[in-house]
Structures are given as structure tokens and as C-alpha cells.
Amino acid sequence: MRNHTMIRPRPRKSQEGVMLIEALVAILIFTIGVIAVMGMQAVSIEQVSQAKYRTDASYLANQITGTMWVDQSHLANYAAVGYVGRAGWDAVVASTLPAGTGTIVVNGTLVTVTINWQQPNETVQRKYVAVANINAS
To answer: FRET pair for 28, CA 20 to 30 Å: which of 13, 50, 60, 64?
Structure first.
């Protein structure tokens, strides 16, 4: 019998380190996904806060409109900032919304309530306008 030595094939040099590259690519893809989720979360938080302020503004406009319905005999007085029936509402608008202000325009029985506010760290001023026809008949 002859003594034959078996020669084992050696792995190619070009394949060394492929697993490391695959792991690095997987980490890169995972990192991009995490960054995208964090960006979506930030946008979601911003949208929720904007929706809250719009809801608060709508509630405040409906509140003063309801008060005006009850006090129709003094309807024109609500356009003045210092009017007693409106003073408490102005304070609530200022304390509920950031930099919140409210204006009321009365034209006969047509009432326009405008509420302005500016969210923190923004330069854009937001506005909510409600129009109501307050008529006893």
C-alpha cells in the first residue's frame, strides 16, 4: 500500500472576513431603522401637542359663544376686552394656550371668535376661528 497524504482544500483568501462585513451591514441597517423610528416618534409627539392646542382653542371658542348665547342683551359688549362677561375668558385663554390671545368681533348677531397661540420653540402663530349667528328667534 502506498502512503497517500490527503490534501485538504484551503479556503479562499477572498472569503475571509465576509461574516464580519455581513454583521457590519446588518448593524448599519438596524441603526437606520432605529433612527427612522425615533424621527417618527418626534413627529408624532409634535402632532399630538398641536392637536391638543387646537382642541383647547375650539373648546374655549365654544365656551365664550355659549356665554354670549345666554347673555344676548349685552352681545355687542363682548367685543370690548375689558367687558366683565369676557374678562375671565381672556384669562383662561392666556393660561390655557401658550401666548394665547382671543378676539371677538360682533356684527349684529354674527359673532366671530378668533383665538391665536404660538407653540413653544416655533415662529409660526396658530389661529382658530369660530363664527356663530346668535339670534334669539
So the answer is: 13
SS3 content of the chain, % helix, strand, coil (to 5): 55, 15, 25
Global pTM value = 0.72
Residue range 8-32, pLDDT digits in tens? 766 666 667 788 889 999 999 999 9
d(CA 94, CA 44): 25
What is the spatial distance between Cα 129 and Cα 104, in angstroms, rounded to a whole number? 10
CA nearest to 62, candidates 137, 120, 132: 132
Contact yes or no for 75/134 (Cβ under 8 A): yes
Q: How far is Cα 3 from Cα 23, in angstroms, rounded to an integer?
A: 44
